[in-house]
Write the structure tokens for this entry.
Amino acid sequence: MSLASDIPADRQAALAFDLKRLDPAFLADPFPLYRALREHAPVHRMPDGSYFLSRYDDCAAVYRDPDTWSSDKTRDFRPSFGDSLLYEHHTTSLVFNDPPYHARVRKLLAPAFAPRALAALQPRIEALVDRLIDRALARCADGGAIDLIEDFAAAIPVQLIGDMLGIPPDERRPLRGWSLAILGALEPMLGAEQFSRGVTAVAEFKAYLRDLVTRRSGEHGGEHGGDTGEILSTLIAASAFVGREGGSHERLSELELLHNCIFILNAGHETTTNLIGNGVDLLVRCPEAQRELRAAPELIVTAVEEFLRMESSNQLGNRRAARDTSLGGVAMPQGTYVHIGIGAANRDPAQFPDPDRLDLARRPNRHLAFGTGIHACAGMSLARMEGQVAIGRLVARCATIAPADAPTRSGRARFRGFLRYPVRLA
Ligand code: HEM
């Protein structure tokens, strides 16, 4: 089934495209405009002098050349974040840094994403998903409906990352709000209220984690949390926080530890919630695909890749040129800022035949939903597993997944998803 909008995208709309002036129609369905950009202005210069890339090859080339394309945001975040805690947070997390700092943090985080840690988490995800479905079915059997986002999609990553970081269950309530506020501050247009919510969230999150790390260091003495999938203890052991001696330049400072833990929580939260929400939405909009998945449940593996490609939860990346270069035939002097159109690249017909078609068995499917290169998503295996378990079990256990009311989009350009999605399950 084709999901392409009928509205023809024209050259003028592409040439006038400005990430700082987005209208609600674009936020609801950016894909016609992305197509127009690919066709008419694939390396598009915007009024502030930055470029928007919409072709797969250009986006992949930027990701794969970190020597030319820097992730360091110390300069870029200054105008919008000043010297606030948002600035401290975002410029300390590994994703917004270059080697050698990036490589050091990534290496220290590696055990958190190793197969052993993931294997320990899978049964927990399965049990959690089943509990959430039991509860949802009971509510729907009484004639009610559930919110697919709050009651299902968002409840999964928050518990999982809570387990990963060993956050006690009764202390997890504020996590999602903090996460939304901190990530919300990365939107192309940042209002005063959004900014102040972001700053408060970093302050509260940091104070909470500092306290947790102190408690945890005392409990485990910095040892690994066994086979529970808990990795905060490993990170503490890899940090200078507990005052260990030797090789401290290899370790994380207290600030680095706290901000990178906050980043993991944020990175894995909203993105995975939206993978689940966007995936179920695609199945609701394409009953044919839903039937196909019911008939062949093993398709869930390629289906999740297709959901990631068609409705990437993270639609935008960005880099700055560390030296003079060129892209798609356009000369770019050192300092040029580029926006990587992940959502646009993932619908590029030069890479994906019939790109607006939801093809649950699509292979190959080298989408850029997780980026690629040295910063490729560290949590991709975890996100895939969560998506497969959550959507796979929902479809297996519910013969009907029907909208109960119109869904509400989150209205964000970078993080694509829904705020509310009322459904009835049977
Ligand atoms: C569907 C879910 C997810 C999506 C779409 C996603 C997307 C991405 C993307 C596009 C990047 C690359 C950013 C760049 O190069 O500029 C990234 C990086 C990262 N993600 Fe994810 N992510 C997801 C889930 C997760 C989860 C579950 C975790 C951890 C619990 C996680 C942790 C990270 C980390 C640590 C990085 C930084 C890697 C680095 O800079 O080396 N992500 N993610």
